[in-house]
Amino acid sequence: MKNIFLLFALTLMLLPTYSEAQVRVLSENIEFNGKIGTAQRKSLIIQNLSNQTVGYGLKFLRGNIGSSQSIKLCIGDRCLDPKREMTKIQLRLAPGEIFTDMYLEFDLGITETKGNFDLHFTNTENIRDVFIIEAVYDVFNPSVEETNHKDISIGSVYPNPSNRIAQIDYEFKNPNALAKITINSFIGNPVAEYRLEPAQKSLVINVADLHPGVYFYTLFVDNKNIVTKKLVVKK
Question: Which residues in the chain show pLDDT less than 70?
């Protein structure tokens, strides 16, 4: 019995001790929202909470990524595919360092879909020291309905209905034209107004603070009402 107890004690001593994660992910809630056929790039920020230099490697990628989608993790100017080049993705952090030179590029693919994926990094010297970068995505198929004006062409808002972000794509034909989008409630009360910039290609509207319901958005060009369409906000 004594020998069994001694063996059990020695086994416990040989097991790696648990330690809290030494890295904190500051860029929480990584979200990719966009139309099919587009790609987006998000900045990742992590901090070494310890007073020691630590090294991490990508251990595995978990989640549902479609066949037409692809991701790349960029550290500085070097971009690698986590699926095919996982062992090459390594980073080293100085004591207390806040690392900002890391990015995640995501090709949203050609199918309307939603999903999520996680990147799990493990300390090269302590397998119990792990930090995770979590990301979600929502790929929309915008309406092909487009309004063509002599000064601007503009698509319909998407996603519609929306509960967080709504987007309108446009392209100026005449950069000297003054164009704006106004949003009114169902009963006609003004809610918001956005000037469209010729140097931009899309207008992003935060609808998260709006009450659920039906709204109407109107395109004005040189103060002339061109077209009015419906926007539905849901929770």
Answer: 1-20, 143-144
Predicted pLDDT at 12: 44
Question: CA 180, CA 223: separation in Å to the nearest integer?
Answer: 8
Q: Domain 146-233 is in which class?
A: mainly beta
pTM assigned to the model: 0.64
Domain ranges of the chain: 21-140, 146-233
CATH code, 21-140: 2.60.40.10
